[in-house]
Amino acid sequence: MRKILLALPLVVGLCVSGDAQATxxxxxxxxQEVTATSMxxxxxxxxxxxxxxxxxxxGGRATADNAVVHRGSGQIELSGNVQLKxxxxxxx
Length: 92
Prior knowledge:
By secondary structure, the chain is an all-beta fold.
């Protein structure tokens, strides 16, 4: 299985709201929203996401079947049908 490592600073960490949605508390973090079918924390530093994972960040979005969020380092491991879509500047 191929994994992709996405390094986005998660300054304060994610707050879970509802069953499968998280948003950032910090305005300095590029991560704006995280959604998945299920989320669980193994410890305060690690969050496991599975099923239709979508991470929206300043400049684009990443989707995958699964993800592991490492809050301390700000790294996100994506696996299974990983897609990365970067926003392109609009021509004037």
